[in-house]
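User: Teach me something about this protein's shape.
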Amino acid sequence: MRKVYLDHSATTPVDPRVVEAMLPYLTEKFGNASSVHLFGQEARAAVDRARRQVASLIGARANEIVFTSGGTESNNLAIRGICEIAEARGRHIITSVIEHPSVGGTIDFLEKRGWDVTRLPVYDDGVVRLEDVQAAIRSDTVLISVMMANNEIGTIQPIAEIGALVRAERERGRRYLWFHTDAVQAAGRLTINVETVGCDLLSLSAHKIYAPKGNGALFIRRGVRLLPQQVGGHQERERRAGTESVANIVAFGAAAELAQREMNKRNEHTRRLRDRFESVVTKRLDEIRFNGNREQRLPHLSNISFRFIEGEGLLIHLDMQGVAVSTGSACSSGTLEPSPVIRALGRDEELARGAIRFSFGKDNSAEDVDYVVEVLARAVESLRKLSPLHRRSVVAV
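Assistant: First, the predicted structure itself:
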C-alpha cells in the first residue's frame, strides 16, 4: 500500500541534514552548555550558533531569542509572562477567535482569574479586520495576541498592520501595550522580519520546519520585560530556566538555516501540488466548500468541507489507504466537537464536521497528489452512500 503523508501542519519529518547536524551532540559532544570546561564551552558555542540561525530566520538579534520546549511553551511564556508583570497597568487582552489552543487556552486561564478578553471575529474568509482591532483597544489593554497564519485553514493575518497600529498607540503615549504573534505555522513558509512586523514577541516551533519535536523559541524584543514561567536556573538570560537541550537546539538552528535558504523553492513546490490537488478535487467531487481565504493563505495548505460526511469517518477511510490528513489542530485531537475555527467562518455544523485539512510538504510528489485524489474520491462516494442526508438530497433533485 502506498503511504502519503499530507499532515505537515501537524508535524514534519526530520530532514536528514538536520539529523546529521545534531548527531554529534547526542554522542561525543555531550557537554552541558552551562559548564565552564571545554566540553561545556563546545556545547555553548553550538547553542550560540543555533541562536543566530533561528534569529536570522525572522530578522531578529541573537540575544532576542529564548529557546523553549516548543510553540506551546513559547505562547505561554509570552502571554502569561507579559500579563503577569503588567497587570497593575491593565487587565485587558485582545485576541482572535481562531487562535491555536495553546494561545486560546492560556488566555482562557487568565480570563478565569479576572482578566477581560476581547475575541475578534474573522468572518467567512478567516481574516481579522484591522478596524476591529483598533476598535477593541482600551485604556487598560496590555496585550494583543493574533497569530500570523492559522494552523487549520492557513489564512494569513494582517500582522504588520496590527504592529503599525500598536506603534502608533505608543507614539501617543501608550507605553504598556504589547503585541504577540504565534508564527509557528508561518515560519519557514513566509518571509518574516520582526522589524517589519512590529511585534514585541513571536513564537516558533522546530518540528514544523523539519526538525525534531520538543524545541521551540520565543522572540522577545530587546527592552521587553516579562515574568519567567520556569525558574530555578540562569539559562536563557534568566528568562527560561533549565538545562539546554543542546542536540535539539542545534537541530532547530540547522533547520532554520535550511528553511531560510530553501523557502522559495519549497513554497513553489507545495503551492503547485496544492493547486493541482484542489483543481482535480473540484472537478471530481461536488458538494464541497473550501475554507478560508484562498489567496491570503499559506502555500502548502488546503482545508475542504465535504457535505454529507463526518470528517473523522473520512479521515479513517483515508488512513486505511495509507493517506495521512487531519480534521483540525493536532493539539485538539480527541474532541468530539466540530472545529471552532471552521465554525468561526460561519459554516453550519454539518460543514464544520466534514472539514479535512490537507497540508503538503517538500518531499511530496505529483504522484502523491494523484493517488490521494483517487482514494479521496472513492472514500467520499462510499461514505455518502451511507448518509441518509445525502440520499434525501439525491431524491429531492
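Now, about its shape. Residues 48 and 77 are 21 Å apart (CA to CA). The chain has 14 helices and twelve strands. If you'd like, I can walk through any region in more detail.
User: That's plenty for now, thanks!
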